[in-house]
Amino acid sequence: MTTCNLCNAKIPEGKECKDLFYELTFYTLNQDPEYFIHQLIVDAYGAQHITKDTKPVAVGATLLGLYLFAEHNYTGKGIQKAHIDLGSKMRELPTITIPEKKAAVNVADVLAVPDNQKDEMIKQWVRSVWEIWKHERPHLEDLLKKYKKTTA
Question: Which of 14, 63, 112, 142 has a Cα-to-Cα distance from 71 of 20 to 30 A?
Fold first, then answer.
């Protein structure tokens, strides 16, 4: 067994962390399409795997998703709509500081629970990842304010 150096997930031999994400994807894409919990795993996993080489629009979308869920109770569908509405504006996120601390929950933790507990564990995962990124809240709030001014 190995450990992902970005999220601390325990990875079985012969697999990569991304393989665990794909495995969880099979579960999330078969859930309630109105809530669209799949968006939550995309953002949680993405935020745990941000590096200095991650494109700004990907950073903006990922962190915005965490913020909207954790602080404003958006559903996955609501986050997806915000991503679409903001589009290229997410490139305007200033340089971010990647946290050194790892979140308490990762993709392997979510896969380890029974299916009837996965949705709640996914939500716990997102909140856990947001905790290590919440120092970026002011940048995200600025981004949303700029967007609201252009659509008002």
Answer: 112
